[in-house]
Write a structure and sequence with these properties.
The chain is of the alpha/beta class and 122 residues long. It has helices at residues 12-24, 35-41, 61-68, 88-97, 109-119, and strands spanning 4-8, 28-32, 49-52, 79-83, 101-104.
Length: 122
């Protein structure tokens, strides 16, 4: 059975690019347009990894990480931040909130898939 990855980004075209790379590697993909949308879609379905942007309207990625970690079903779900941000303070805030890894845009699909394969839950 395919593993499910949630991609959270306010850019539809970017969600599409990431989704194509992940689907091509055999993953199922759920898309969310911001943190609020992502939380609404976390309905108990098993999610093996969450890939999230940092800068989004309604709820940013770092706040989202903190909110996900409060949910019993998703407390241990790994979260990869995929963002244009590269400041150490932002990385530290994400790590403190519970993010497992950080990848800077633009990215190469093999880099993303390598990170995903290391982080995705069994």
């Amino acid at each position: 059975m395919a593993k499910t990855i949630m991609v959270v980004d306010d850019s539809a075209s970017f969600r599409s690019v990431v989704g194509i790379a992940l689907k091509g590697a055999g993953y199922d993909v759920i898309e969310a347009c911001d943190g609020r949308d992502a939380l609404a879609k976390l309905n108990g379905t098993k999610i093996h990894l969450i890939v999230s942007d940092v800068n989004m309207p309604n709820m940013d990625g770092i706040t989202l990480v903190g909110e996900i970690k409060k949910l019993p079903n998703y407390r241990f779900t790994p979260i990869l931040m995929l963002t244009t941000e590269s400041q150490p303070e932002k990385k530290e805030a994400a790590r403190a909130a519970g993010a497992k890894a950080w990848l800077v845009k633009p990215f190469q699909p093999p880099m993303l898939l390598d990170a995903v394969s290391k982080l995705v839950l069994p």
